Amino acid sequence: MATNSKVPLNLVLGTNNIGDSSKDPVATIDSSEQAKAFLETFAQRGYSEVDTARCSKVMAAPHTKDNILKGIDALLEDLKIKQIDIKYLHMPDRATPFDQLCEAMDHSIRETKIRRWGLCNYAADEVAQIVRICEERGFVKPSVYQGPYNAAVRGAEKDLFKVLRDNDMSFYAYSPAAGGLFAGNHKGGRKGGKF
C-alpha cells in the first residue's frame, strides 16, 4: 500500500448495479443502452478498470479446488477473455481448509487464467493464515484485499491494514460512499433491501 499522498488513487468501477432488475434487486441499470452510456461516461473521465464481480446470494460456495477452478473457467468463458486481472474470493468458506483455495488460485495463476488474486471480506487472522499457507507451500500469495471502508465503516483500521502492509497487499475499498447512505439515497428503504 502506498504511503505517498502524491500517488493518485486508482478508481475502479463496480458494476454490480448492472443487470436484469426483474431478477436482481441490486440492478438499477438494466438495458444495454443504459449500461453502454454508464461505461462510456466512466471511460471519458479517463478511467478503465472495471470490477465485473457477480453478485449472488450464495457467494460462499464451497471453496474446494475443483469448484474454484470450474468457476474461473466459467467466468473466462462468460466474459470471453483469456485472463482475469484480479480474481477475488468474495466470502470466506470456513468449512473447507484454506489450503484448497490457495492451491486453486496458485494453479490458476500458473496456468495464466488469472494475473493476481485477492480476498474480500476475510478477517485479518484469516488473511494472515492464508498468506502463511502460501508461503509454506510455495504458492503465489494473494496481492490484494477488497473490503468496505468509509466514514462509518472503519473496522479495517484495527487489525487488517497491518496484516496487509506486512504482506505487501493492496487494499481496494468498496462502498466508499456507504452505498449512497450519506447522500440520503436510502430514506424509507424497501423491505429486504440493503438499507
Q: What layout of secondary structure does this protein have?
A:
Elements: E1 13-14, H1 32-44, E2 50-51, H2 65-79, E3 84-89, H3 98-110, E4 114-120, H4 124-137, E5 144-148, H5 160-166, E6 170-174
Parallel strand pairs: 1-2, 3-4, 4-5, 5-6
Protein described:
This protein is an alpha/beta fold and about 200 residues long. The protein has two domains: about 10-50, no CATH class; about 55-180, NADP-dependent oxidoreductase domain (TIM Barrel), CATH 3.20.20.100. The chain is built from five helices and six strands. Strands 3-4-5-6 form a four-stranded parallel sheet, covered by helices on one side. Strands 1-2 form a two-stranded parallel ribbon. Helix 2 (about 65-80) packs across helix 3. The longest helix is centred in the middle third of the chain and has 15 residues, at about 65-80. It is globular and about 45 Å long.
Write a concise synopsis of the structure shown.
The chain has 195 residues and is of the alpha/beta class.
